[in-house]
Amino acid sequence: MGCDVGVIWKAMVGGDMAELSEELVRRMHAYWRAANYLTVGQIYLKDNPLLARPLTVDDIKPRLLGHWGTTSGLNFIYTHLNRVICERDLNMMYIIGPGHGGPGIVAHTYLEGSYTEIYPHVERNADGIKRLFRQFSWPYGIPSHVAPETPGSIHEGGELGYSLLHAYGAAYDNPDLVVACIVGDGEAETGPCATSWHANKFLNAAKDGAVLPILHLNGYKIANPTVLARISQDELEALFRGYGYTPHFLEGEDPDVMHPQMAAVLDKMLDEIAAIQTAARERGDTERPRWPVLILRTPKGWTGPKTVDRKPVEGTWRAHQVPVTEIHEKPEHLKILEQWMRSYKPEELFDAEGKLVAELEDLPPKGRRRMGMNPHANGGLLLEPLRLPAFRSFAVEVKEPGSPNTEATRVLGKYLREVMKCNLESKNFRVFGPDETASNRLDAVLDVTGKTWEAATLPVDEHLATDGRVMEILSEHMCQGWLEGYLLTGRHGFFSCYEAFIHIVDSMFNQHAKWLKTTRTMAWRKPIASLNYLLTSHVWRQDHNGFSHQDPGFIDLVANKKAELVRIYLPPDTNCLLSVADHCLRSRHYVNLIVAGKQPAPNWLDMDAAVMHCTTGMGAWEWAGHEADSPEVVMACAGDVPTLEILAAVSLLREELPDLRIRVVNVVDLMALQPLTEHPHGLADEDFDALFTKDKPVVFAFHGYPTLIHRLTYRRTNHDNFHVRGYVEEGTTTTPFDMVVLNRMDRFQLALDVVRRVPRLKSIADRATQRFTEMMQKHKLYVSEYGEDMPEVANWKWTARGSK
Ligand SMILES: Cc1ncc(C[n+]2csc(CCOP(=O)(O)OP(=O)(O)O)c2C)c(N)n1
Ligand SMILES: [Mg+2]
């Protein structure tokens, strides 16, 4: 559809002007100028902060870094939100999608005093301003984005797309909170952002807070126009109506008009929010409301240089980063910069000492109402520990290793049901999943709470509830983003996902881990609850689905991150899963990754043994090995299916070679494999050597890609003798045992590996090879013929004597 951009737009506030006194408009405009001045100063200046003398190249930073284009608009919005916070005594947070507008938020938090309270060395005087300028995008200073260092921030915004999700995550269960969320029009093109508008179907007007989305239609991204800026207003309006919002439009660039209009539109939207909340809270109205959204069109780089080198800059993509460069080389550029900075009239904004003038000092909110000081943006301050039931009471009774068979995640579901129940009153725990809570066998949780759902319901629906605490939508992005927002504002959560598809949020995990890494060493940021993943429906048991659903690589990704942040658990059975889950829900400031199957599988350890095993992280299972005083081979395993195959291989070897001295080692905490110098859970070298020996072959069956085990153990004494089997990217829709055969991690192959690696067995290697190879052939013929695993495999059970 063609559209004439020049005429597609008309301001839709209906020309409303708020009842702002001229005096207030004048002061708000001055305040905005001050924020813009401080923004430009951060990008350009290392000296002469108040322009007390003419600008020279010596005042200019050697490297000009930062983003101007988005920032003046963000500064405008912040100024206006300050007014409504004061007038309505709002509890408001500010999340900006285009996190590259960092200098604007730093400027505002400096103006309102939050910055100096947290960083007293950045004083409220000329020296402080100079420091503020110098530190920005400066080595060992502060980052260019709305980083963890920025007061009031829970959203870095470096990777675009998640602002709305963080905003909604923050709003859940915070009924008096309003989360203002600026969405960049470029950001709005990302997949996660595009779907996240639907979060309004999961927000309870009575029990949750409000999100105030503002689509910042400044027309451009880095180098291109944005799609939403170049469609007609009708389309734009239809789009947002279609998403279920009431769109409000405001366009302009003349501050005299924009200030009163912005005030009017914000008042209108906040009135709408108040009316929606009153209807839900006082009249019990349960109809899904149309929450307001503001679509704000202002020029990119508003108030910046109009042209540079005769090319238009303000209102174009050229304003995105640093609009005037080559200041050291081109005197006329220095002049443009000076004129630009002086256009904000700093002498009217700051006194001779560099203190903000009194009439502006009064303007922002005070204390915790300042957006830089909102405690929700420092969630650890508000964090209450979960009330946790005794996980031991959910234990499976294991009289002897190998029985009974249980579905580990189904038992976990019962435990989570109690966790949910214990914390219903405190409203600080939610379970997240992309349409898979029941499929992942965690549906017991639904006995005590529903699945959040504000859209229409039909009689056929089950467990949907407007106040449910299980959040399901078929978007891993949304689950992850909601959970992050929920955790960052001081609550707890649990995310279960099919193992293969968690990769969809690889990058979001990266960003969250970066946030945790940085905040870990910041004294004023308090630790938050860990992000807990349960990956199930895992690679080895995709009987329904096949190759597309087989990928254990998320473990590798998590292992890339700083040791102090990540924990990876591969519980071999149900009791271990319970012990690990309890531990994870108590932990702080980590990412915990748990990988566990949902299919019926044998249990190996009673609860006491499980707790002991999970606490150590790994250990020899004496009941499974028989090593006399020293083993000839170590058979190690990590993961439920690898554990099963290793134990089955041990049984075969016992039959074949009763005198072979085998040690069985199970690893539940993968990070224990690393040296203690690399990870706090790492086993000390002496203990590792004692467990894995210094010189005996280690045949290791691993849940994921084998290279990871090598990565984690390459510094260990016996690493050269580690022979790892794992997933090698072979898969299809086939039987459970055929999956391990395809990837050469089956019991026959593992037994063969042992025979080939133990020097004493060289003489019988040929015979064993023949026997085990025959078994593999027999298996192939059997599954091809009958479509299921051979009875001796499917019904195999561990016995104290070996296989039956
Ligand atoms: C997911 C992602 N892709 C690409 C980038 C690189 N990038 C940084 S800013 C930007 C343009 C952003 O445009 P918009 O959201 O409209 O922000 P604004 O115009 O307010 O600067 C891009 C593509 C990024 N940060 N994140
Ligand atoms: Mg833009």
What's the short version?
With 804 residues, this protein is of the alpha/beta class.
List the helices and strands and how they pair.
Layout: H1 22-44, H2 71-88, E1 91-96, H3 102-112, H4 114-118, H5 126-135, H6 163-171, E2 177-184, H7 191-196, E3 210-216, H8 233-242, E4 246-251, H9 255-282, E5 292-297, E6 307-308, E7 311-312, H10 331-342, H11 346-349, H12 358-361, E8 405-407, H13 408-422, E9 429-433, E10 451-452, E11 464-465, E12 470-472, H14 476-488, E13 492-498, H15 506-520, E14 531-536, H16 554-559, E15 566-569, H17 574-586, E16 591-595, E17 600-602, H18 607-616, E18 618-620, E19 633-638, H19 640-656, E20 662-667, H20 685-692, E21 698-702, H21 707-713, E22 722-725, H22 736-742, H23 747-757, H24 765-786, H25 791-794
Parallel strand pairs: 1-2, 2-3, 3-5, 4-5, 9-12, 9-13, 10-11, 13-14, 14-16, 15-16, 19-20, 19-21, 21-22
Antiparallel strand pairs: 6-7, 8-17, 18-20
The chain binds thiamine diphosphate (TPP) and magnesium ion.
Residues 184-186, 218, 220-221, 226 line the site of magnesium ion.
Gap from first CA to last CA: 72 Å
- Radius of gyration, rounded? 31 Å
Q: Label the overall shape.
A: elongated
Spans where pLDDT lies below 50 across 5 or more residues:
1-14
Taking strands numbered 1, 2, ... along the chain, how are they ordered across the largest sheet? Answer: 12-9-13-14-16-15
**Range of helix content:** 25-40%
SS strand fraction? 5-15%
Number of strands: 22
Helix tally equals 25
